[in-house]
Write a structure and sequence with these properties.
The chain is an all-alpha fold. It has helices at 3-36, 38-49, 60-96, 103-116, 122-130, 133-145, 147-161, 166-186, 203-206, 229-244, 255-266, 272-308, 338-348, 354-363.
């Protein structure tokens, strides 16, 4: 079974598992709302939307259980998303094999342009490495086995230690990789190792370490030199680790993009221009990702504010609040309602003296300036 089909099946299974966990979370949150009240139900709903699971009980054991289930659901969703994107990448790579026209011409143009601007010669660096076979073998191993594992380790570290930053980084990865894929599909460019007319050698084939195999086979595309995803991912990892991690050792990650840039050149898999374009696309992806994150936060804040607003319409009862102006006379007793006044009048029939006068005065509204 081809690699892209295996990745697609795994992505479907993981995304299905994440969907089941999310549905269970909503059901548990809904049932818990009737027992715990509206305030706790709202908190559970927010947690469920964030990828967690609402707490079904107050015991520590049940809380730990639901946290574990929520973690499995969130991890399945992210892993399935990454594998799904990898499947689309492989499908696009297979479709892009049919677009090979101009690949060698573009490689020759890049070679001549780099010589015109006096960039270091990839050919001279490859010839130097050919005299150091052990170094060259190590470089081929690095090129073959560090690219994908390094990104996987970075995503796992980010998900476990800095999950708040994970969505924005994932968006940046998708934007950069997607834009690179468009270049690979519509502007195929041959790597230096294919430009044998100027003296390049495919040393990975000579040493038996090639990851490409026959044309159109293997994990990576043969004519996807421009831009270099190896360099772009390495720079992305270094940038995000330095930005997110609070450790004072985080600056050591700069060795990763430096070594990667040298390896892809000395192994004749990429031009210097490939790495330069990758850095430019990465910077644009970071800016676009920030803009999308800001727009998403504003949209969510607007939706929450609309939900929090009371329903508009005329008041259903009498207006409340203190009178708008100062009182026009001396303070008076609270007005008695109709039932009290009628009862007082009935009781006053047959009464005389001060008591009857008081009841008659209470039943009669007070007029400013009038005596009791």
């Amino acid at each position: 079974m081809p690699l892209w089909q295996q990745a697609g099946i795994a992505a479907g299974v993981l995304l299905s598992l994440a969907l089941v966990v999310r549905v269970v979370a909503r059901v548990v949150a809904t049932r818990g709302a009737a027992a715990r009240g509206a305030a706790e139900a709202e908190a559970d709903e927010i947690e469920a939307e964030a990828g967690g699971v609402a707490m079904a009980g107050r015991s520590a054991g049940r809380r730990r259980l639901w946290r574990a289930v929520g973690f499995v659901g969130a991890a399945s969703q992210e892993a399935g998303t990454i594998l799904g994107l990898f499947t689309l990448w492989q499908i696009a790579r297979i479709l892009g094999v049919t677009r090979v026209g101009g690949a060698m011409e573009r490689a020759d143009w890049i070679w001549r342009t780099e010589r015109a601007v006096h960039l270091p010669s990839e050919l001279a660096m490859e010839r130097f490495m050919l005299h150091h076979e052990s170094w060259l073998r190590a470089a081929n191993v690095f090129y073959s086995w560090v690219h994908f594992p390094a990104m996987n380790v970075f995503l796992v570290w980010l998900f476990l230690r800095h999950r708040r930053a994970y969505p924005s980084v994932r968006t940046t990865i998708v934007l950069f990789t997607g834009s690179s894929l468009l270049f690979h599909m519509f502007l195929p460019t041959a790597p230096p190792r294919m430009l044998t007319s100027v003296g390049f050698v495919d040393e990975a084939v000579v040493l038996g370490q090639s990851v490409y195999g026959e044309f159109g086979a293997g994990v990576a595309a043969q004519l996807s030199a421009l831009p270099s995803v190896h360099v772009g991912w390495a720079c992305l990892i270094a940038y995000e680790v330095i930005r997110i991690s609070p450790s004072r050792w985080r600056w050591l990650i700069l060795a990763h993009p430096i070594v990667t840039s040298l390896v892809v050149v000395v192994t004749a898999n990429h031009w210097w221009a490939d790495g330069i374009l990758a850095v430019v696309l990465l910077a644009l992806a970071v800016l676009a990702g920030r803009a999308l994150s800001t727009a998403r936060r504003r949209l969510l804040a607007r939706l929450r504010s609309r939900r929090a607003q009371p329903p508009s319409g005329p008041p259903s009862g009498p207006p409340s609040g203190p009178p708008s102006g100062p009182p026009s006379g001396p303070p008076s007793e609270p007005a008695a309602d109709g039932a009290d006044v009628a009862r007082d009048r009935r009781q006053s029939q047959g009464r005389t003296g001060v008591g009857a006068a008081y009841l008659r005065t209470r039943a009669r509204p007070w007029v400013p300036g009038a005596g009791v």
